[in-house]
Specification:
CATH superfamily of the largest domain: Spore Coat Polysaccharide Biosynthesis Protein SpsA, Chain A
Largest sheet: 9 strands, mixed
Oligomer: single chain
Shape: globular
Number of domains: 2
CATH architecture of the largest domain: Alpha-Beta Complex
Helix content: 40-55%
Mean pLDDT: 96
């Protein structure tokens, strides 16, 4: 029988943590919480809920998740965020998988569905690897949008849904998107990617069409429309911030006596 550790990284998640932990108790042998400087009582709550609690200054998303996985008592790790809740069908699938024992893939993907302004956005769901064997897999060390690297090995699939209660407010979304686009631009710049007027012109409307029609968010009314608008802004800001990094780098070189 597999033994499994649910792993959560937190910072000021006291409002959402208990619901996440309660759902994880249905299948996890251990729940690990790694916190990076909460001031709202998250640490105290995690201890009250019986979690194994660690503190670590924020090193970045990928590194924090790997830090947490390394402190788990079990090699099989289920990555879950404090604003996510494992649905009943997924919890049952995890219990069934545990009972099967050896002979499984090194990782499993599942479906995650997010909410926005009181609506579940089923059409915009994601398939994400969240259950993995840390002996064979690691979370990518990138500034943003980290993922489980299976080393080219096949990932299985679990039925059920991971419900993502990600909507807090429009302002919160704007702040988070601002942070994510900065990190994405910095990553692209470090990899040598160049600002492109062409991308700036075609990606925002392409993203709008993808979200609105291919993912069917037009069916979600004003909530779906707002999500689409925010993603258009995301595409624009990411490209403009990449350009800004280039322009600043060029100015620095020029000031040091170099050439553009």
């Amino acid at each position: 029988m597999h033994r499994l550790s649910a792993v959560i990284i937190t910072r000021n998640e006291a409002e959402r943590l208990e619901r996440c932990v309660s759902a994880c108790r249905e299948f996890a042998d251990e729940i690990v919480v790694v916190d990076s400087g909460s001031t709202d009582g998250t640490l105290e709550l995690a201890r009250e809920l019986g979690c194994a609690v660690y503190e670590n200054p924020w090193p970045g998303y990928g590194r924090q998740r790997n830090f947490a996985a390394e402190r788990a008592a079990n090699d099989w790790v289920f990555w879950v965020d404090a604003d996510e809740v494992v649905g009943d069908e997924l919890a049952a699938a995890l219990r069934a998988w545990k009972a099967k024992g050896e002979g499984s893939p090194v990782a499993f993907e599942l479906e995650r569905i997010g909410d926005f302004m009181g609506r579940w956005l089923e059409g915009a769901s994601e398939r994400l690897v969240r259950l993995y064997d840390r002996r064979a897999c690691v979370v990518t060390d990138v500034p943003v949008h980290e993922a489980v690297d299976t080393g080219g090995k096949r990932a299985g699939a679990l039925p059920g849904v991971l419900w993502h209660h990600g909507f807090r407010s429009i302002s919160d979304h704007v702040v988070r998107f601002n942070n994510y686009t900065t990190l994405e631009a910095e990553k692209a710049h470090a990899q040598g990617r160049r600002f492109s007027v062409w991308r700036l012109l075609w990606r925002p409307p392409a993203r709008l069409m993808q979200r609105l029609f291919l993912q069917g968010l037009y069916r979600k009314g004003i909530a779906g429309l707002v999500v689409c608008v925010l993603w258009v802004e995301y595409e624009i800001m990411r490209e403009l911030k990449l350009g800004e990094l280039e322009w600043r780098a060029a100015d620095t070189r020029e000031a040091a006596g170099g050439t553009r």
